[in-house]
């Protein structure tokens, strides 16, 4: 599996999960794709990966979270819609291990 240190591949509707974990090399984020051969790992945190994905769609992760809180009334870890047309939704499941930079 490829480990990317300087950039990430585009997150798309075929992305199944973005999972942060601690490895011997330090903290890594695994991006799991529909096709297992397309899976990869990166040194960016899950929050950074999602932030870069949102920027690619011309939106901010912080704005999506605040909007989801306002619309749903969910104050803790609300689900966010990155791209409603293609069905890209992000569900935060637990606090990440690596602090966001």
TrEMBL record:
Q: Name one GO biological process term.
A: establishment of competence for transformation
| A Pfam short name | ComK
Query: Could you tell me what this protein is called?
Result: ComK protein
Q: What is the lineage of its organism?
A: Bacteria, Bacillati, Bacillota, Bacilli, Bacillales
